[in-house]
Amino acid sequence: MFDPAQLAALVAVHRRGSFDLAAAELHVTPSAISQRLKALEETAGALLIRRGQPCTATPAGLRLIRHHDELTLLERTLATDLPWLSPRPATLRIAVNADSLATWVIPALAATDGFLFDLVIDDQDVSQDWLKRGEVAAAITAHPGPLQGCDTIPLGSLRYRATASPAYMARWMAQGVTAATLAAAPALRFSDKDRLQDIWVEQQIGAKAKRAAFPSHRLASSQAFVDGCLAGLGWAMNPEVLAAPYLASGALVEMVPDTPLDVALHWQFSRLTAPALAPLTREIRAAAARVLVAGWGGSQLVRFFC
Prior knowledge:
Blueprint: H1 4-16, H2 19-26, H3 30-44, E1 49-50, E2 56-57, H4 59-81, E3 90-96, H5 98-110, E4 115-121, H6 127-132, E5 138-141, E6 150-164, H7 166-172, H8 179-184, E7 187-189, H9 196-205, E8 216-218, H10 222-231, E9 236-239, H11 240-249, E10 253-254, E11 261-270, H12 274-291, E12 302-303
Parallel strand pairs: 3-4, 3-5, 7-8
Antiparallel strand pairs: 1-2, 5-11, 6-9, 6-10, 6-11, 6-12
């Protein structure tokens, strides 16, 4: 029903944010992109792109983008079943939280052939929203669902430790970890969506912590969190797998000994494209099993029906 070249133009404009960048990606002129998009909007009978800086898809446009992605993955499955078709790598867009990417996801991607990965990096608490909007085919998320039309596989928990350098602790926490010392001591926060520090503080010093703000540096990098702690810039919730060598050497210490924070993660994906995603799903589960802390139902498939 829809022209593949026109759908590709829609996807490129939305994901690259401009007609010029979309044209560069598809190796055509901006005029060609404009003509394809106009023709697609006439066929669909709806506005598909909001022109601006950046250009973004309308709800109708997002639905067609999801349709394009699903077709691409389904065609890859067909080509796998019919190898003489010589399938080209399919671009697969997934949402991943930065700490998972820094600790265990890359080996799973590297072990999966046939895809070019387009990763959306966002907090595990909101990554499901990307899947809900149809902008990704799968997501690593803290939310098990339910999400209509999707399957969920629990992966285990990524364990965090509240860490800081010994010099930082001597300077800022000489009186212990209390509401008063935390209110003065700088922390490291990934973004405004990052709540790990808040959750840990609430667990350690109680309900009053919900009203106790603490100053924060913002560093949108998992490795920078570790480096920042080592340099005494602040304290942070660091993935145990990243902090372990420094905790063992004494370069970092736990702010309160033996107080891990476990964040449950799930692999959630569109049921329609599950067969095409099966190789990646297998590698995601294997990589998670090597790093994450085992939790309930680690091999269980949770299905949410329409």
